Amino acid sequence: MKFNISIPCEGAVLGRYLKQNHHELWKQIQHDWEKGQQLYQKSNIHVEAKVFIRNIGGINKTEHPKRR
């Protein structure tokens, strides 16, 4: 199943990810991220998700640990 949707995302969240996980790249682009060239607004972000469906059907109660 493929979807093509636009969801506004906070640039600070993605910027923080880049800073923590791709620090050398972040140092090069940080001044143009939201200002200057506005790289954040020009970015195309592709997300892939792998989903495992454990059970199908309706949910009729919240799962709680066994009570006394």
Describe this structure in words.
- α1 (11-21) crosses α2 (23-29).
- With 68 residues, the protein is mostly helical.
- The protein has helices at residues 11-21, 23-29, 39-42.
- It has 3 helices and no strands.
- The model has no long low-confidence stretch (mean pLDDT 77).
Detail the poorly predicted runs.
Answer: none
Number of distinct helices: 3
* Beta strands, count: 0
**Class from secondary-structure proportions:** mainly alpha
Q: For the residues shown, what is the average pLDDT? A: 77
Residues in β-strands, percent: under 5%
Q: Could you describe the largest sheet, including whether it forms a barrel?
A: none
Distance between the termini: 44 Å
The percentage helix is 25-40%
Order of helices and strands: HHH
Globally, the shape reads elongated
Radius of gyration over all CA atoms, rounded: 20 Å
